[in-house]
Amino acid sequence: MRDSVLKVFIGYDPVESVAWHVMAHSILSRSSIPVALIPVNLKNLTGIYDRPRDAKQSNEFSFTRFLTPYLSDYTGYAVFFDCDMMLRTDIAEILQAVERDPGKAVYVVKHDYEPRDGVKYLNTVQYKYPRKNWSSVVLWDCAHPSNRVVTDTYVGDASAMQLHRFQWLDDSEIGELDVRWNWLVGEYLEPPADVRNVHWTVGGPYFEEYCNADFAEEWFAEHAKMTFCQQRPK
Predict the structure, then answer these.
(1) With 80 as the cut, is the pLDDT of residue 120 above it?
(2) Positive or negative, the Cα torsion across 154, 157, 163, 166?
(3) Per-residue pLDDT reduced to its tens digit, 121-145
(4) Source organism's superkingdom (predicted)?
(5) Which residues does 9 contact at the CB level (< 8 Å), separation at least 6?
(6) What is the pLDDT of residues 95-107, one digit of tens each?
(7) Per-residue model confidence (pLDDT) at position 123
(8) How far is CA 141 from CA 15, 68, 80, 151, in A?
(9) What are the CA-CA distances from residue 55 to residues 82, 170, 182 (Å)?
């Protein structure tokens, strides 16, 4: 695959399958550059990942997201997104972070918050821990030497803390994305008009109890575009 093609990995969980497809549509419909959309789906990782599910995992891709550089053969740039998101801008813009601050192994939104609620979608426990949600949007320099540590074996064996806190990296190797690239609905109030990526971390509009969340109308409009098919005139 050419370096000009941006690899975009999106976590997939069958309990919210619709979220993956709407997120994928929001990316491809706005992108000005070639993108390869890749689901991080457990069923596609036979022989690569066989780690038992941790009771604290809120979704199937809690750990497999860290396979991004391995699946990219440690070449080029790649982005990982959770599926409970919707892009509102051209994904090519995320690469501006590299231009501003080159040489980092990863670029993330460095959230510093505690969840407002103890429970989120499907009655899942909302755990509190340092660097929470840093790993929900990651721009990876897959060729960075420090990311060579992140092999399939490492992802299968490392602790949740080692992975989600990026402990294989020195803090100086962790670049920063603007918070608009990972806007946490229900956690952050008064969203600016130019939010680039909406993240329904507590629960997306496709769950009945969250159908009136911030940006829900935009999600339903994106869903309608994703399912559109032009018909023959009668």
Answers:
(1) no
(2) negative
(3) 655 766 666 788 999 999 999 999 9
(4) Bacteria
(5) 38, 39, 40, 65, 68, 71, 78, 79, 80, 81
(6) 999 999 999 999 9
(7) 56
(8) 30, 10, 11, 15
(9) 19, 29, 25
Alpha-carbon distance of 1 to 64, in angstroms, equals 22
Report yes or no: 106 and 39 within 8 Å, Cβ to Cβ.
no
Measured distance CA(162)–CA(169) in Å, rounded: 10
- Chain-wide mean pLDDT for the chain? 93
Given a contact cutoff of 8 angstroms between Cβ atoms, the answer to whether 117 and 45 are in contact is no
Distance of CA 167 to the CA centre of its chain: 19
What is the DSSP annotation of 49-80? Answer: --PPPPTT-SSTTTTGGGGHHHHTTT-SEEEE
- Cβ atoms 107, 138 nearer than 8 A: yes
Length of the chain counted residue by residue: 234
125, two tokens: 């426990």
- Interatomic CA distance for residues 56 and 127, integer angstroms: 8
d(C-alpha 20, C-alpha 5), whole Å: 20
Q: What is the pLDDT of residue 119?
A: 67
Distance of CA 175 to the CA centre of its chain: 16
Beta strands 85-87 and 77-81 are unpaired
